[in-house]
Amino acid sequence: MTVIAIRELAKHYGPVRAVDGASLSVATGEIYALLGLNGAGKTTTIRVLLGMIAPTSGSVSLFGQPVSPSAQDLWAQVGYLVETPAAYPELTVTENLRVTARLKHVAPHAVGDIIDRLGCTSTRTGGRATCP
C-alpha cells in the first residue's frame, strides 16, 4: 500500500519556486529521509504534506486520500515528530498552533479561540511575534 504519494508537487511564492516538480512514493514499511541543502524545499514539502499550505500545483495523498486541512479522519492516522525547537521560528503563531492542534486532534477552528485567549490577536494573519 502507498502511504505517501507526491506527484509533480510545486509550490511557488511569487517568482520563487520553493518546490518544483517533486514526486515520490513511500509504501508501507519503507523508511524515507528527506535530505537537502537549506532552501531546497524540504520544509515546504512537509508543510504541503501536512496540509498546512496548499500546493501551487501537483497532488499529495496519504493512505490514498487527498491531503486537506479538513480531512480529520486522515489526521487521526498521522504522526509527526516535531524537532527542536518546539515552536518553529519561521512559522507564525497561528501556523505553530495549527501544527500542534492537528497532532492533538483539536478542531482547526479552536486555534482562533486559543490565540484570543493568549492575547495574540495581532499575529493571527501573519508576522513573527511573541505572546504576552
What can you see in these coordinates?
By secondary structure, this protein is an alpha+beta fold. It folds into 2 domains: 1-78, Rossmann fold (3-Layer(aba) Sandwich); 80-132, no CATH class. Helices cover 24% and strands 24% of the residues. The protein is built from 4 helices and 4 strands. The protein has helices at 42-49, 72-75, 93-103, 110-118, and strands at 2-13, 16-27, 57-62, 65-66. It has a 4-stranded antiparallel sheet, covered by helices on one side. A hairpin with a 2-residue loop joins strand 3 and strand 4. Helix 3 (93-103) packs across helix 4 (110-118). The longest helix is centred in the last third of the chain and has 11 residues, at 93-103. The chain starts with a strand and ends in a 14-residue tail after the last helix. 16% of the residues are buried. The model has no long low-confidence stretch (mean pLDDT 82). This is ABC transporter domain-containing protein. Keywords: Transport. GO terms for molecular function: ATP binding; ATP hydrolysis activity. Residues 20-106 form the ABC transporter domain. Belongs to the ABC transporter superfamily.
N- to C-terminal distance: 47 Å
CATH class of the largest domain: Alpha Beta
Can you tell me the number of structural domains? 2
Give the second-level CATH assignment, the architecture of the largest domain. 3-Layer(aba) Sandwich
Q: Mean pLDDT across all residues, rounded?
A: 82
Indicate the percent of residues in helices: 10-25%
The portion of residues forming beta strands comes to 15-25%
CATH topology type of the largest domain? Rossmann fold
Integer-rounded radius of gyration: 15 Å
The helix/strand order is EEHEEHHH
CATH superfamily of the largest domain: P-loop containing nucleotide triphosphate hydrolases
